[in-house]
Amino acid sequence: MCGIIAAIAQKNVIEILKKGIIQLEYRGYDSSGLAIINDKNEILRFRKEGKVKNLIKIIEKKHLSGNIGIAHTRWATHGKASIKNAHPHISNNISIVHNGVIENYKEIKKYLKKQGYQFSSDTDTEAIAHLIHFTQIKNNQKNNLLKTIQYVTTTLRGNYSIVVMDSNNPNILLAVRSGSPLLIGIGKQENYIASDQLALLNVTQRFIYLQEGDITILTNRNINIFDKNGILRKRKEIYSHTNENSISKGLFQHYMEKEIFEQPDSIRNTLLNRLTSNKTIHFSELNTKANKILFKTEHIHIIGCGTSYHAGLVSKYWFESLAMISCDVEIASEFCYRKFVVRKNSLLLILSQSGETADNLTALKISKKFGYLGSLTICNSKNSSLVYESDISLLTYAGIEIGVASTKAFTTQLTVLLMLVAKFIHLKNNNLKLEKKIVNILRILPNKIEEVLKYNNIIYSLAKKIFNKKNIILLGKGEQYPIAMEGALKIKEISYIHAEGYPIGELKHGPLALIDPKIPIIVIAPNNYLLEKIKLNIEEIYAREGLIYILSDPFTQFKNNHNVIRLPYIENLISPIFYSIPLQLLAYYTALIKGKNIDQPRNLAKSVTVE
């Protein structure tokens, strides 16, 4: 969850660190901090609660200079958001920043207290700093920080990444990756470490992604990487075609707004070179072995968190009704902690934007002990842990998504899932006519998204009617039910209004008790085979004086056509993707009117790398 950046160079690294933590703020914004080693080999540390801008104000007044430094923006796990809990943490000559959770920190802390160490924070991170210093002194390793860290990592339990700076060794940076993502940026006579390449795009486009268990030791000229067994390794260097301009908001007020309006192009990029002239699906990622796994698949077990979970729920309707493959969908954090039965010839399918979500990675690790045919990840990050550790991976090409509330990652996941459905139809030779129909409809999807985005002013008008409400209910049926859940999640995330998504047919089994003239009820009602059932449920709400707003097409008539939001006609197959767009806009405009921090909603972070 937290954001880490570190740099070592022949020049002053302060500007690199400042720009880096600004770009990493989406990973956590409870507090932030920065430390450097100056020319007197002293550690200078500065920390501040709240947004990164609070820290930057302090730093800019200090006129600091140092050739080596570390910085951190925090999402609180152990200990509340406060200055004393902000990173970096220091133990004598050792200063560290940390992302993740150390599960056995209480035992470490208890032991170190007996050795005379005093703790000034409530974090697990401070225990790591003291343990490194203690080990260094105990083993007489003042000049061998690498050996010290290699020993310390055998003691720590949990998922984490750490960057260590030592004022006794001011010409090296040392970093560890154990479960949480970390990468190296390569510069000219300077090198960097970060949680995400976003932090470094202003200084380099050359990266090395550390693998699980790697320990790296950097100078301004050299990079050495040791695996978990202490063997020196050469890891692949990757050139990123993402540049600093691509993460600008441009003319948009917020990243979320920009990312909503980028969806036509994100979907085009995701479809690119995957729809053949023969009206079939071509995934270049699928080799012969992968195709054999898919051919044998008789059941799909989907795992995801939050928005990705909702995408999985939509695809369950597609897999079962179109590809005739049974499908179950589960929240990753629940899957990880229950006993389960693996069905015959079952494929584990994991959905993730970042590919670093701790619950998803735990689920994948657990699944390898059971009898799945294999694992398939659909992900927006090519170099992520999930992609690396899965048997098969299919990429979405949403582009970088910075807004905490996911938008284009969701619709591109659904796009890949529908393509995967068509691929299964082809492999199993179920219905080639249906496969071609899916391909034809996918071709027009980006244009349909462009059409509905032009209705943003109508959605803004709806937002003005609901922004001051305390509760909102969203209703859908069939594959629109998960879209109602996703719309409710977006409203909760960024406007802080309590919103719930329900299947409309379930109203009579409890939720009707909530209906009154004050609670807005938003109904997704496309013109499909379920429409007549939806109309009956709408009448039940009207009978109880419910305040209804209906999202539908230009032609469908209702008994009461008041408050019907008329959107362009859409083919039923892609209607879940289509109808998610106005709900994203509704959440955005509602939060905008309320004056909320849309890109950085309270208590949340973009990449959830802790359980």
Count of individual beta strands: 25
As laid out across the biggest beta sheet, the strand order is 3-2-4-1-10-9-11-15
The total count of helices amounts to 18
Beta percentage is 15-25%
Low-confidence stretches: none
Q: Which value, in Å, is the CA radius of gyration?
A: 26 Å
Please tell me what the overall shape is. globular
- For the termini, the CA-CA separation is 10 Å
Derived from helix and strand composition plus strand pairing, the structural class reads alpha/beta
Integer average pLDDT: 93
| Relative helix content | 25-40%
| Main beta sheet strand tally, sense and closure | 8 strands, antiparallel
Task: Provide a descriptive summary of the structure in words.
The chain is of the alpha/beta class. Helix 11 (358-367) links the parallel strand 18 (346-352) and strand 19 (374-379). It is globular and about 80 Å long. Helices cover 35% and strands 22% of the residues. The protein is built from 18 helices and 25 strands. It has an eight-stranded antiparallel sheet, with helices on one face. It has a seven-stranded antiparallel sheet with strand order 5-6-7-8-12-13-14. Strands 17-16-18-19-20 form a five-stranded parallel sheet, with helices on both faces.
